Fold:
Amino acid sequence: MRFFKSAQSIGSVRYLHIFALIVFATTPLSQLVAQTHVSNMFVIEDVSVVDVVNEQILTSRTVVIADSRIVSVSDARETAIPAEMVSIDGTGLYLTPGLIDAHVHLEETDLPLYIANGVTTVIEMNGSPEKLEFRSRVAKGELVGPRIYMASPLLAGTTQNFSFQLIENPEQARQAVLQIRELGYDFIKVYDGLSLETYNSLVESADEFEIPILGHIPASVNIQRTLTDNFKSIEHVEQIARSTVGHNFDESQIPDIVSQLRAGTSAVTPTLAAMEILNSRRTSWFDSLFERDEMRYTPNSVADWWQSMRVIESARNDLTDSSPGGTSASIGFYRTLTRALHEGGVLLLSGTDTPNPLLVPGFALHHELQALSRAGISNSAILRMATSNAAKHLAAESEFGVIKVGMRAELILLRENPLANLSALRSIEGVILGNRYFDKTALEDLLER
Structure:
């Protein structure tokens, strides 16, 4: 049976959402399962495939998907379509790999927001037993959401203002690693305030049980030590700056910083958009962010926190700096350092640190990509950071991150070319997630719920 291009259809993907709307209208969000699919076999006809690795567009391709895997990418003029395939009309559309947000802090209600924004994989950076549970439910198809990789609860040596696990001595560090292994976290998240002795115990235990470490650079540890200890990733370009130049934003030191990082194996997740926002609170640009449509998907408690960061209303007319991302010395340094790391061959990832102020889950990744663009990085390189770079970081190059035979079907259909304009990544016509296809209407319904 073929939909969408057959005599019964209207030449587009409009029929597919009818079943989805029935399901969504009658099922609580927490109980949504993979009911938007029509078949385990899809074919996307006459689509332009975005080759993120080789920076090119492959026009007039037919992509065949069976059992949640890509089984064929071929010339549309030469491809016979099996009758049992569910056909999606890709004419005039662009097919790109699903996006990956490499630094998030999830709530269960956030999950559909990621899918609606084309984000099909995330890395949770402060795990908990509750989050392990919904990671499992997503994997089983009981919840609609992106694939979740999960770091441990953040391991801190001092009290924090948010969820954390206090680790004050080497024995506590070893016990924490044993628990992390037992519960099945993917990474150990190192955080602030750890003594050198406690940090050493964490590293030794992580090595013993072969659990990768990532996170912050504790003040007791310099950046060279984290590289020696093979951090999987260093989170926030601000952490690198703090560990090397402090608040003396001397760009002459950047080549030496890049040289150090290039000699190691650590990836870097800059989280530039968060840095821009936090360093631009007295600008009209910061103030304008509260007017974005996506703000309505923010819980009241979070919105109130964000609102508390604004200058008082009577002073807002005096805010004149409207430059996107801000113009402070710190932001200029972070951008220059990020671009230099990229040009120096350091593996960069796109991550948001949502729900940091004014970063709405799912939507935030598109703002991070724009922030990376403001740093002077090309569209194609940024797209790799959000796809193939992250897959490499996760040792999943054979699973997702590019479009080729054998890969998981985690794909976005776009109306515009993302290599020409990163904003095209928001022109989403549909998302394929394994054996599920969400067309534009189904995605909008996800957002509304």
